[in-house]
Description:
The complex is a heterodimer of chains A (487) and B (95).
Chain A: H1 6-14, H2 20-38, E1 41-43, H3 46-61, E2 72-76, H4 103-110, E3 114-119, H5 153-160, E4 166-170, H6 177-183, E5 186-189, E6 210-214, H7 217-227, E7 257-261, H8 271-286, E8 290-294, H9 302-317, H10 336-347, H11 350-363, H12 368-389, E9 395-399, H13 415-420, H14 426-431, E10 435-442, E11 448-455, H15 460-473
Helix pairs in contact in A: 2-3, 7-15, 9-11, 9-12
Chain B: H1 5-14, H2 21-38, H3 73-77, E1 83-84, E2 87-88
Antiparallel strand pairs in B: 1-2
Amino acid sequence: MLNLTVKQLAAELAAKRVSSVEVTQYFIKRINALGKALNAFISVDEARSLASARAADQLLAAGKGGPLTGIPLAHKDIFCAKGWLATCGSRILSNFVAPYDAHVIERFDQAGAVIAGKTNMDEFAMGSSNETSFYGPVKNPWDNAAVPGGSSGGSAAAVAARLVPAATGTDTGGSIRQPAAFTGICGLKPTYGVVSRYGMIAFASSLDQGGPFARTAEDLALLLNVMAGFDARDSTSLQREPEDYARELAQPLQGLRIGLPAEFFAAGLASDVARAVDAAIAEFRRLGCETVEVRLPNMRLSVPVYYVLAPAEASSNLARFDGVRYGYRAPEYSDLLDMYCKTRAQGFGAEVKRRILIGTYVLSHGYYDAYYIKAQKLRRLIAQDFAEAFRRCDVIMGPTTPTTAFNLGEKAGDPVQMYLSDIYTIAVNLAGLPGMSIPAGFGAGNHPVGLQLIGNYFREAKMLNAAHQYQQVTDWHLRLPPGIEAK
Amino acid sequence: MALTLDNVKRIANLARIEVAPHEAERVLAQLTGIFGLIEEMQAVNTDGIVPMSHSQDRVLRLREDAVTGSDQHTLFQAIAPQVEAGLYLVPKVIE
């Protein structure tokens, strides 16, 4: 059971060689043991999960099962699931039991999937190491001294440690791709607007996008088939014909043009990551791909632009946490204003407060044009660079991160260094493009290296095709973190 | 544009986040470092570029101005810090 993919587990369930109750019990046992050591989960509710598993078994017995029926999945604690805590990794939502389901949760529920638990994350998805969580940091299953990445660190660690076969995350500046890279698994951020943000607690609404984590590209396609779809309750949800993201998986890669941006391979890229990424690209050439050099000259500005736009949107989105309608309220205060100020000072952690203050400043009178409008103009230049690059290639490839997983505490005291670790992922969110990370080898200390694939708008199926073909001739995605089997 | 302690106090008030006097210096130092990074934006000429707020320049979809939801106030107020007679309670603001 440990190493079965979602696709393989579904086949076992369909053939009735195993039941969803048995599968769910197996993984929850692992979550309760190894999951605790890694601090990967915030909520586990075995009785509730088993009730869903029993319902899934009935569907399967009636021959009404689909590709995900009976499969236990972990969800980032940013998604509202009715009756489950949805803390978003924050003290201010530490008592928030969601009164409704996110669109993504509804879709998985309709598909018969089982919620195995809610995963740990950086507070309000603001972080790259899972160290900003009110519930404490998550450990990387490959090296317990290292971070799993963030902000979806709990989901990534859970999939890497085989605590669940697949999971969900969200990606605002790299929060799916970077933890996928750090933990040696696959993660995909769809084109902006493909997955509904309804019930997904908002951080930066023009950038946030939900997506799946799994161990193979094929499994990502199966999950995305369920997650994607129009939802009238999200005003940015796109009205498009449903598509099968697995439809191109088997296509040969002969003639596929891979764009290699010089900026992805410049100073700042660690040599162990560069070696693994170069080897992966050589493998794609052996599969018949052509490589062309492309340029993203404004990519270097993506970090400063992001740290204006994301905090600006966050300062607005997080204004709703005021201690009145839900969540934490400070126990002592003198008047209404003091209640707001104390509730928010006590309820938010240091990084979240920092970003709210930055956002408030860049939106304030006299600074709006110099910061916010300037950043929006640069955002267009960054998006135009990609449009230009995609005239010459089908998929862009490069490293997901400049280094492999760094150590717990290594960057926690220096926000700027932490922000710069997302240099290769942020531009993709600013442009609204789909991106993914797949395992492509190991660097120093046996830390996994991620290869990033960036597709043109709505070309998720092409990225998944490239990743799947690569996984037919390599075995990096099958490697197991040391010692996790025994525990 | 160098940030000052007064800036920090002003934006903390606007953001409704209490920043204790002994914390303000540390917050200022961190924000100054981050704005050092942000200032790199100013090196690029963006005259004539149209600001981009949506990645595909789409206009937000509008809907009919019609009631679609149902009354769920009991459900939503069940998780509120303080409620009485269907109202959210806050400290008195009118003397």
